[in-house]
Amino acid sequence: MRDINPTRHAALAALARDPLTVGVPTEAQPDIAEQFVNWRWFIDRDGIGWALLDKPGSSVNTLSETVLSELDSLLGLMERVAPKGLAIRSLKPSGFIAGAEIREFADMTDEQIIDERIGKGLQVLDRLEQLPFPSVTLIHGFCLGGGLELALAASFRIATREARLGFPEVMLGLHPGLGGTWRSLRIADPIAAMTMMVGGSPLSADRARRAGLVDAVTEERHFATALRQAVDGKVKKNRVVNLASRAAAFAPARSAMAHRMRSEAEKKARPEHYPAPYAMIELFRDYYGNWSAMRREETRSFAHLMVGETSRNLVRCFFLREKLKSYAKGLEHGISRLHVVGAGVMGGDIAAVAALRGFIVTLEDREPRLIAPAIGRANQLFERRIRNEGDRRAALDRLMPDPAGSGLATADLVIEAVPERVDIKAEVFARCEAAMRPDAILATNTSSLLLETLMSGLKRPERFCGVHFFNPVPQMPLVEMVEHDGLDHSVRGRVLSFINALDKLPLPVKSRPGFLVNRVLTPYLMEAFLAYSEGVKPEVIDQAAVDFGMAMGPLELADTVGLDVALHVAESLKGALPGAFPEIPDWFRKLVAEGKLGKKTGQGIYQWKDGKPVKQRPPGQPDVDLQDRLILPLVNAAVECWREKIVEDADAVDAGLVFGAGFPPFRGGPIHYAKTRGVGDVLHTLRQLQTRYGERFGASLGWEALMPQ
Amino acid sequence: MNGGEHSPGRPVFIVDGARTPFIKAQNKPGPFTPVDLAVQAGRPLLARQPFDRRHFDEVILGCVNVHPDEVNPGRVAGLRLDLGIEVPGWTVQRNCASGLQSIDCGFRAIGQGLADLVLAGGTEALSHSPLFFSSEAAAWFGSLTSARTTAKKLRLLAEFKPTYFKPSIGLVRGLTDPVVKLNMGQTAEVLAHRFNISREEMDAYALESHRRLAKAQAEGHIEELVPMIDRKGTLFDRDDGVRPESSMADLAKLRPVFEPPFGKVTAGNSSQITDGASWVILASEAAVERFKLTPLARIVDTNWAALDPSVMGLGPVLSMVPMIRRNGLNRGDIGAFELNEAFAAQVLACERALDDGQFCRDILGLDEPFGAIPMDILNVDGGAISLGHPVGASGNRITLHLIHVMRRRKARRGVATACIGGGMGGAALLELM
Question: What is the DSSP secondary-structure string of B276-338?
Answer without folding.
Answer: EEEEEEEEEHHHHHHHT----EEEEEEEEEE--GGGGGGHHHHHHHHHHHHTT--GGG--EEE
